[in-house]
Amino acid sequence: MKTFTEAQLVARLKKRDEKAFGYFVREYQGQVYRVVFRMLGNAAEAEEISQEVFITVFKSIDRFRGDSKLSTWLYRVAVNHSKNRIKYLARRAQSAKREFDEFTEAQTLDSASMRTSGQPPRPDEMAQARQSETMIQRALAGLEPEHRELIIFRDIEGMTYQEIGTITGLIEGTVKSRLHRARLELRKCVVRLQRGGGRG
Prior knowledge:
The protein has a domain at 1-98: RNA polymerase sigma factor, region 2, helix turn helix motif (Rna Polymerase Sigma Factor, Chain: A). The chain is built from nine helices and no strands. It has helices at 6-14, 18-40, 43-60, 70-91, 101-115, 123-140, 145-156, 161-168, 172-196. Residues 93-101 and 111-118 have low confidence and may be disordered.
């Protein structure tokens, strides 16, 4: 399979090269879907919005000047699309559906496999990891989108404060202070869910 440097990829995308676009989608679709799903908490919505993200990038790639990494710009587009979708759903008073099973099972298999160094995960490990994953996702859904994105980028995706600042447009000190508040809110949401037996 042909690979590209980032500069080559951007140049080919700006020429509307379909092969380069296919490579771009294959390289980043997992990360984009993961972020969008975490933001929206709905598998069907995440699938649709992820596709829209790549279409937007393909159409607007000429505006990418290389001031940041291509992936950083892509994440910014993904978060903006997610926030717009959240607003759209809120205006129509649609409660977010929580379709976690298929996604969390895949995530559970990955994480459990890593913990056991390639050994098949035990059923009890899978069940516990799935339960924890679902709890975190439901707690995330209780946060404001601005707090949600910080938790996703820092604590789930493992980005640096600088990368998060580039995506969000916030200075590093603001990222840190907002992330602190976001973590406190997330903890409160988890406690509420645990006490309430599930629904928050």
